[in-house]
Write a structure and sequence with these properties.
The protein has 265 residues and is of the alpha/beta class. The chain has a single domain (2-258), classed as Metallo-dependent phosphatases (Purple Acid Phosphatase, chain A, domain 2, 4-Layer Sandwich). It contains 6 helices and 13 strands. It has helices at residues 13-31, 51-60, 75-83, 129-141, 156-166, 212-221, and strands spanning 2-8, 10-11, 35-39, 64-66, 102-107, 110-118, 147-152, 172-176, 186-187, 193-195, 200-203, 234-244, 250-258. Strands 1, 2, 3, 4, 11, 12 and 13 form a 7-stranded mixed sheet that branches. Strands 5-6-7-8-10-9 form a 6-stranded mixed sheet, covered by helices on one side. Helix 1 runs parallel beside helix 2 (51-60). The longest helix is centred in the first third of the chain and has 19 residues, at 13-31.
Length: 265
């Protein structure tokens, strides 16, 4: 029996929230989804996911919201983690950090474990994602063989290293954080579905979701600039996978990007 998984990439601000409200109901019907996961760490004006965005997403049919390094940027999003178990933060933050790093969802086809991890290369020096994954996968495996990982990381090499380390131990490995969708979706040799980065659901007339002028000025002057979410050319990035519930292996994987870029001048 296959479990149909839909994962939507990093939602950025109101444009991303509007886009997912427009497209998600149709995608759920099209793919006959059993579980829907979204990365929502940028859902609130590009920084964090508060109760307001969470309610919208869960009412749309989302089952789990994953996070990342920007999960902590707003107080309201931090508070939300204390009460909503389905809204995750990366597991490998230091012990005592509030919030959940994984969640086991009940679906009509069985339980699905969702694990959120964060990389360390070019990012904060937090706990080891490899050793944190070892503990979490062992824990989740006592309930289900279907395990999905959102690895929020900067470096492609770190993503590939962890994916190969976990190949055969988890069902699906989703890279997130860079906001640029990669075209390398595949099933690894031991049965784990993989993509280096799932991409961004938000405005692409931007620099990874931020208004272009402010982003350019950060590099020109090497000084902080006010973060402002861009607004135009909004697209949805995602991935659909079929996972065998008995073996936990990915049977097929499909990248989603809506609408396609206009490549004409």
């Amino acid at each position: 029996m296959n479990i149909n998984v839909l994962f939507i990439g990093d939602i950025v601000g109101k444009p991303g929230m509007d886009m997912i409200q427009m497209w998600l109901p149709g995608l759920i019907k099209k793919y006959h989804t059993d579980i829907v996961i979204v990365n929502g760490e940028n859902a609130n004006e590009g920084k964090g996911c508060t109760e307001a965005e969470g309610k919208v997403l869960f009412n749309l049919g989302v089952d789990v919201i994953t996070g990342g390094n920007h999960t902590w940027d707003k107080h309201k999003s931090q508070e939300y983690l204390k009460t909503e178990k389905r809204a995750l933060r990366p597991l490998n933050y230091p012990r005592g950090t509030y919030g959940n790093g994984y969640f086991i969802a009940d679906t009509k086809k069985g339980k699905v474990g969702v694990l959120n991890l964060q990389g360390r290369t070019f990012m904060a020096a937090i706990d080891c994602p490899f050793r944190s994954a070892d503990w979490a996968v062992k824990t989740i495996s006592s309930d289900t063989k279907t395990i999905i990982v959102d690895f929020h990381a900067e470096a492609t090499a770190e993503k590939l290293a962890l994916a190969n380390y976990l190949d055969g131990k988890i069902s699906l490995f989703i890279g997130s954080h860079t906001h640029i969708q990669t075209a390398d979706e595949r099933v690894l040799p031991k049965g784990t579905g993989y993509i280096t980065d799932i991409g961004m659901t938000g405005p692409y007339d931007s620099v990874i979701g931020m208004k272009t002028e402010a982003a350019i000025n950060r590099f020109l002057y090497q000084t902080p600039q006010k973060y402002q979410t861009a607004e135009n050319e909004v697209h949805l990035s995602g991935l659909f996978a079929k996972i065998d519930s008995e073996s936990g292996s990915t049977k097929s994987i499909e990248r989603i990007f809506i609408p396609e870029f206009n490549r004409e001048s």
